[in-house]
User: What shape does this take?
Amino acid sequence: MNNLHIQKSAKNGLVFAVIIIFLALIGFTVTAASMIQKVFGVEVSVGTMPKYSALIAFLAFIGLWNGWRAAKQTEEHPLQAGHAILAGLASGFVTGLFALGYSLIVGTLQSNGVNVRVYLSSLSPESIIYFLFGQSPLSGGFIQLSLSTVSAAFGALLVIFWDRSQHQFLIWKQKLSAWGNASWPAKLRRNVFVGYIAMGVVLLLLVILPRTWGSYWNYVMGTVGIYVLLGIGLNIIVGYSGQLVLGYVAFFAIGAYSFALVTAPEPHNLNWNFWIAILVAVVASAISGVLIGLPILRLRGDYLAIVTLGFGEIIRILIKSDLLKEITLGPRGIRNIAGPTLFGKSFSSDSDFMYLIILAVLLSIFLARRWQESRIGRAWLAISQDETVAQATGVDTYKYKLLALAIGAAFAGLGGAIFASRNQFTGPEDHVLMVSINVLCLVIVGGMGSIPGVILGAFALKGLPEILRELESYRLLVFGALLVLMMIVRPEGLWPATRPKYEENSPPPVTVEGGSR
Amino acid sequence: MMAEEHHKRPVKMPQLNIKIIRLIAAFVVLVLLILRIHNVALESQLGASTWLRLSVSGLIIGGMYALIAIGYTLVYGILFMINFAHGEVMMIGSFGGYFVFEAFNAIPVTLHDGTQISFLNAQPVIAILLAFLIGMGIAALTGYFLEKIAYRPLRGAPRLVPLISAIGASIFLQNAGQLLFGPQRRQYINPVIIDRGLGWQIPIAGTKVLLTYSGIFSLVLSATLMVALYLLVQRTKLGRAMRAVAQDKRTAALMGINVDKIISQTFVISGALAGSAGVMWGIHNGLTNYFVGFLPGIKAFTAAVLGGIGNIPGAMIGGLFLGIVESIGPAALGIDFQLQDVIAFSILILVLILRPSGILGEALTEEKV
Assistant: This one.
C-alpha cells in the first residue's frame, strides 16, 4: 500500500462523491429509497418520505459498490486483504467527507430559511431533512460519513471474498457449460424442427395475446410494434446500406399527415377508405424519400446525417407554421382520423390495432429479409462496407442508396399512418427530432443490420420505459446514461447481425475496422 | 498518369454531369432568391434603420453561434465526430453565469450616501468577470468529463458508435439540467451597465436605432474570444500540438505529443467557449432553461459546416453569416418570422449540396466526408 494506491482510492471516492451529490440534487435518493421500500412490500403513503432504513439500504448499496471498485483498483495478485480494506476505507471516507460537506451546506442554508428549491427544483425541504436523517446538518452529515466509510469497507470485504472463492466459481462455470454442451439443450438447439415449433408458439402467442391483454398492454405493445416497424425501415437505410440518416421522422410525419389529410373530416373532408389511405401514405413517403434523397445522397457520413436532420426539422416547422395552416391546421394538429374498416365494419378496437400492427411488422420483416438476401441486399452490403470499392466494381451506388432510402421511407410512412390512425390524432409535436433519435438508437442498441436486434432494441428502448413508470422523470436521464454505457460495453448491439454465408468453406470474414482513426 | 486517367474515366463521367447539374441548380436558386429579395425587400416599407437593426442583432447572435461552432470544429477536426452534446455544454455554462448573477444580486451593499443596492450593481465588473469565469469553468469541466466518460473509451470504434454515445450524453445532460434546475424559464438578471433594454441611440436615416449595451458587450466579447482562440491555435505550443493531432494522430504521438491530453484540452477549450456563449445568450436574451442549448447547438453545427468543418476561421465566418442571414432572411424574403429556423436549415442543405466543403473549406477527400 503506497501513496499511489491512496491516491487512486481517493480519486475513486471523489467519483462516488460526485455521484451521490448528483443523485441527491436531482432527488433520486428519495425515489430510489421509496422503490426499495416498495420492493419489500411496504407502500409509501402519498406526501410522506419513505422510511430511513430504505435510504440506508440505498446509500449502503452505493457504498458497497464504492468499496468494491476501490479494492479492485489495487490490482494485486494475490489480493492482500489489508490493502483492499484500507483502499475501501479510504475511498468511502473521501466520499463521506464530501457527503458531509454537502449536508452541511444544504442543511445550513435550509435552517437559515433559504428556499433552495427556487434554484434547485428537485431539492424540496422534506427531501433535505430526509437526506440528513431528520438530524441537524452536522450530525446528519456524520451519519452519512460513517455510513459511507463502513459500507465501502464491506464492499472491499466482498472483493476479498470474491477473490478467495473465484476458483470455486470457475469450476461451477465449467460444469455448467459442459452440461450445456453435452445434454439436451444443445441437441435441441441443433434440431431444425425446434425452430419451426418456436416460431409456431410465437405466432400463436401473437394471435392470442392481444385478445387477453387488456388495453394498457395493447397500447404499450402497439407502441413497441410501431417502433419495430420504424426500426426495420431505418435498419434498411442505416444497417444494410450504411447511410446515416438522422431525419427519419420526416418520412414518419409525411406518412402520418398524408394519411390524416385524406381520412379526417377536417380540414379537407375527403374521408377516404382506410386501406387506400394507407397505400397513399406509403407511396407518398416513398416518393418523398426519393425526392429528398436525389440531391443529398452524394454526401457521406456525418454530412448526410446532419442534412437529413435538417430536413426533418424543416418538415416539422413547415407543418407547424402559418404558411401551411390551411393544409395542415398548424400546431393544432389533425383530429378524428379514421380507424380501419373491413367490409364496411369498423375494426378499430385496441386489439384490432394490435393485430394490424403485428401484421404490418410481420410483412415488413418478410420484405426486409427478402431484400437483404437478394441482389439488392448484396449491393447494399457492398456499399456499406466500402462505397468507393463498390462503385469501382460496378455497383450503381447512387441508385441502390436511393432505393434503400425509398424503402425505408415507405416503412416509416406505414408506421406513421398506423400511428396516426391509432391515436386518431396527429400534430407537429408527434414528429420531433427525438423520434428519429429513438429509432436510430433502437437500431444501434439492438444491433445494426439485425432484425431480431431491432425487435429487441424496440422492447428495450420503448417497452422498458413504459413499464418502468416508477422512474417517471428519471426515465430519459437513465436512457441517456444507458446509451453511453451500451456504446462503451457492447457497441455491436444486443443481438448483432450475422452475415449470410454465400459460399461453403469460405474463409472467415475479415473484420473491417470501419472508419477507425 | 495517362493510364490512371484511362482507368478512371468510366467512373468519373457521371461526376461531371453532377457538377454541371449542381452549377445549374445553384444558378437557378440564386436567380430565384435575388428576384424574390428584389420584389420583397426593395419595395417594402422597411427603412434602412430596420435593416441595420436586424443585421446588428443577427451579428450579435452570430457571434454566439460562432463561439459554439468553433467547439464543433475543433472537436471534429481532431476526432472526426459530431459532438452532439455540445449544445448542452453551452446550457450548463449559461446556468453557471445565472447562479453567479443571482448570488450577487442577493447581497446588499450600502453606498456612502446610504442607499442600498445589490452587489451586482455596486461591483458590476467583478460580477460579470466572475459570471463568465464560472460559466466557462463549469462548461469546460463538463466538456472534460464528457470526453473522458463518453468518448475516450470509444477511440477507434466505428464512427456511428461515438455519435450514439454523444446523443446519449446529450439526452443525459439535458435531462440532468431539467431535474436540477426545473423545467421553467429563468430570468437572467443583468448588471445595469450591460442592460438589455438600454443602449446607445444611433440616428440613421431619420430614425434612431437602439444598440443595447448587452448586445454590444456580447459582440465585443465574442470577437475578443475568437481572436484569443485564433492566437492560441496559431501561436502557442498547445495550439501547435492541437493542429498536429488534427493532422495525424499517430505521427503526432511519435513526435512526443500526448494525444489523449491534447484531446482533453481541446474539449476543455471548446467547452469554455460554449460556456461563454451560454452566459452571453442569457445576458442578451434574458432567459435560460434546460432546453436553451438545443437549437443554438444544431445551428452552430450548421455554421461550422457552412464555414467548412475543421476550419476555425470558417466556423467564425459561418457563425456570423448564419446569424445575419437568419435575422434578415425572413424580412428579406417576405416570410413569417416563424420560419427563421427553416432558413437556417435550408442554407445548410443548400451549402452541403452545392459546395460540400463549405465556404472556406478545402476540397474534402472522400474519406474525410
